[in-house]
Structure formats: C-alpha cells, structure tokens
Specification:
63% helix; flat
C-alpha cells in the first residue's frame, strides 16, 4: 500500500483492512471505556479511485433489495446487519 506503484485496488484493500481490524475495534473499545456510543465515520472522504467500486457496490445493493422485494423477502434483518436500519 505504501509502494509508489500501488493503485486503486491495493489502496482500497489496505483501507478496508485498516478500518476493519484497527479503527472499528478502537471505536468499540472507546464505547466501552467512555460509556457513550462512539462512531467513527470511515466512509466519507471518498477517494477518486474508489468511485467506480462504490457505484458497483451500490448497484448490487439496489438490485438485491429489488430482488428481495419481488420475492417477498423482508430485507430489514440484512439492513440492520450493515447498520442501515433507518
């Protein structure tokens, strides 16, 4: 990730790992220690190289929600799992 030749995919994976294994556990630990819910927004500051990946992911989500609706499946449990319950 720190190499000059690192491109979008490598950077995106590095950021995903940093978020999953370092930043999120820090937020959970801070919540426990401070007794207040701590949320760290790691989604903002969209990098230009990630725009295409985000667009594809959003299309997949919308397609899955449409398929669930057509099949009569309640998407609420899945949306709650990814913290999109509102």
């Amino acid at each position: 990730m720190l190499a000059r030749s690192a491109q979008g995919n490598a950077i995106r994976e590095g950021q995903r790992h940093l978020t999953t294994w370092t930043i999120q556990p820090m937020a959970e630990e801070a919540t426990c220690k401070l007794g207040e819910p701590i949320a760290i927004d790691v989604v903002r500051n969209l990098q230009a190289f990630d725009t295409g990946g985000r667009a594809r992911a959003l299309k997949s989500i919308i397609d899955a929600l449409a398929a669930a609706k057509a099949a009569g499946v309640d998407p609420a449990p899945a949306l709650n799992m990814v913290d999109w319950s509102e």
